[in-house]
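Hello forum,

I keep getting stuck at the same step: I have a sequence, I want structure tokens, and every attempt I make locally crashes halfway through. Rather than fight my setup again tonight, could one of you with a working pipeline run this one for me? It's a single chain of 152 residues.
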Amino acid sequence: MASLNKVILIGRLGKDPEITTFENGNKKVSATLATSERYRDRDNNWVEQTDWHNIVVWGNLANDIADGRRNYTKGDLMYVEGKLRTRQYTDQQGIVRYVTEVHADKMMQMAPARPASQSSYGQPYTPAPEPAPGYVPQNNPGAPEEGSDLPF
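Reply #2:
Ran it on my machine without issues. Output:
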């Protein structure tokens, strides 16, 4: 039976990518990506849940980032596509730890980070106000009236 390991994320970089260059010249780029979703709880209050993802980039894409041909910075809105990988290591206390990472094979900037004065990132979500009780929407100006002789 065939299987598939594919991840697609759209979110904001949590920090500038970190570049590691190994003795053989290979490069590794590490970054964190925040994805958020908003929903209403049982009490009809807005709740925002943010998940943080560890992103790892190798090969030509890592070289492009490390060499500055692709310039990504904290806060950039990113599209990331890759595979999930889980690795284990033993920490200094002898405890075995597991880390799940997205090994990205596609990564592109969708929008640059906004200046702090314009950013709503990290701010509470404010939904549009609900219409007043008894509000009846009016016909859209310029929209055809019901029963008009339109061919569709």
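Residues 7-111 form a domain with the OB fold (Dihydrolipoamide Acetyltransferase, E2P) fold (CATH 2.40.50.140). If your local run keeps crashing, start a new thread with the error log.
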